[in-house]
């Protein structure tokens, strides 16, 4: 995964990421996020997110999971997908963190944290929208393999 730090948001994705989800039956195509009917999620380059939330450290094993989780919560908030998929997003966060090298105990705590405290972040807002960043200077660039 390739991203950079930003002054307003914490991170900006520099190269598209794709992951398989269990969220099927939707055909969504926004400027920064797409979800195919088969559950394949794409988060496109220039998507901005705030990284891992809560009392945690932004480690490499947490970055891709936080990206996917934030993108799915955004789709829920904007009404593109049903709020019933919040648990799917939380479980995918845990799974990706483990795949990326996080110990299972920490991933369990991350999962429990979002299950208990992240519900408000998935509350639907009126209307659909995408925030576009303009002219943010590059601070640091990361490449995760």
Key terms:
145 residues, alpha+beta, four-stranded antiparallel beta sheet, 3 helices, 17% strand, globular, disordered C terminus
Structure notes:
There is one protein chain. The chain has one domain. The relative contact order is 0.21. The chain has helices at about 60-75, 85-100, 105-115, and strands at about 1-5, 10-15, 15-20, 30, 35, 40-45, 50, 140-145. About 30% of the residues lie in helices and about 15% in strands. It has about 140 residues and is an alpha+beta fold. Strand 1 and strand 2 (about 10-15) form a beta hairpin. It is built from 3 helices and 8 strands, in the order E-E-E-E-E-E-E-H-H-H-E. Residues about 125-145 have low confidence and may be disordered. Helix 1 packs antiparallel against helix 2 (about 85-100).
Multimer state: single chain
H/E element string? EEEEEEEHHHE
Query: How many strands in all?
Result: 8
Tally of distinct domains: 1
Helix content: 25-40%
Largest sheet: 4 strands, antiparallel
How many H/I helical runs?
A: 3
Radius of gyration, Cα only, in angstroms? Answer: 14 Å
Order of strands in the sheet with most strands:
7-2-1-8
Q: What proportion of the residues form beta strands (DSSP E)?
A: 15-25%
* Mean pLDDT across every amino acid position: 82
Low-confidence stretches: 126-145
């Amino acid at each position: 995964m390739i991203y950079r730090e930003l002054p307003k948001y914490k991170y900006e994705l520099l190269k598209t990421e794709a992951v398989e989800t269990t969220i099927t039956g939707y055909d969504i195509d926004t400027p920064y996020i797409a979800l195919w009917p088969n559950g394949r999620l794409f988060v496109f380059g220039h998507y901005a997110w705030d990284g891992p939330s809560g009392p945690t450290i932004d480690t490499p094993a947490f970055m891709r999971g936080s990206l996917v989780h934030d993108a799915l919560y955004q789709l829920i908030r904007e009404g593109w997908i049903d709020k019933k998929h919040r648990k799917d997003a939380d479980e995918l966060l845990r799974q990706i963190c483990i795949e990326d090298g996080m110990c299972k105990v920490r991933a369990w705590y991350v999962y429990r944290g979002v299950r208990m405290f992240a519900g408000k972040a998935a509350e639907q807002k009126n209307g659909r929208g995408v925030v576009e960043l303009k002219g943010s200077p590059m601070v640091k660039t990361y490449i995760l393999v």
